[in-house]
Write a structure and sequence with these properties.
Length: 224
């Protein structure tokens, strides 16, 4: 009996074994297939993401060495040559000196002009009394005086006034003009049928201007 049962067991065991082996092989094939499908899907997803990543953020693919190279180039560009800095400093100093010299020149010219005007005014003030005496003398030439002598005096007077006019010395208009305290010095009041009140009717001494500067005001009599 035991032998029959052993023979029965020996006969059934190979079939069971084959069936088990078939199941195992099928499971392995299914597992391999699933793994391959997953791998293919992963590769396809990676291929789709790679171009976008490169397009959106190229700096992620940049290696440390590349970054160092880029930074190195930037540092070289930003670093200035000492010679260029020295040239720029010298140019700035030259410009400053030229500006200072130009200011000095303008200031000196202005001071010279003021000194010249002051000197000219001082000389003119000393000459004007001589002109006044010439005018008084010509107005009071006695009758019967030497005509040649009188004409010579008139020519000298005219020469002096012409030279004063050339350098910018001009007499101030007074008679018939409204009284102006900036140019007229009223020393008396007069009555006049010819001029209105406040008008200069008489000139006692001529006043003179040197360009735009008052040298001497006119001494006048004003209608009251």
């Amino acid at each position: 009996m035991s032998n029959e049962e052993g023979v029965k067991i020996d006969i059934e065991s190979p079939e069971q074994f084959e069936e088990d082996v078939s199941k195992i092989l099928k499971e392995e094939e299914d597992t391999t297939k699933v793994a391959n499908d997953q791998a293919e899907e992963a590769e396809a997803g990676a291929e789709e993401k790679t171009p976008e990543a490169e397009a959106t953020d190229p700096s992620e693919n940049e290696t440390g060495e590349d970054k160092k190279k880029h930074h190195g180039k930037k540092d070289k560009k930003e670093k200035k040559d000492p010679r260029d800095e020295k040239i720029a400093d010298l140019e700035d100093r030259v410009k400053r000196q030229m500006a200072e010299f130009e200011n000095f020149r303008k200031r000196t010219d202005k001071e010279k002009s003021q000194m010249f005007d002051m000197g000219a005014k001082s000389v003119i003030e000393k000459i004007l009394p001589v002109i006044d005496n010439f005018e008084r003398g010509l107005e009071n030439i006695p009758d019967g005086a030497d005509e040649a002598f009188a004409n010579g005096m008139k020519m000298i007077y005219k020469q002096m006034t012409d030279e004063l006019d050339k350098i910018g010395v001009k007499p101030i208009e007074a008679v018939g003009q409204p009284f102006d305290p900036n140019f007229h010095n009223a020393v008396m009041q007069v009555e006049s049928d010819e001029y209105e009140s406040g008008t200069v009717a008489q000139e006692l001494q001529k006043g003179y201007m040197y360009h735009d500067t008052l040298v001497r005001p006119s001494m006048v009599g004003v209608v009251q």
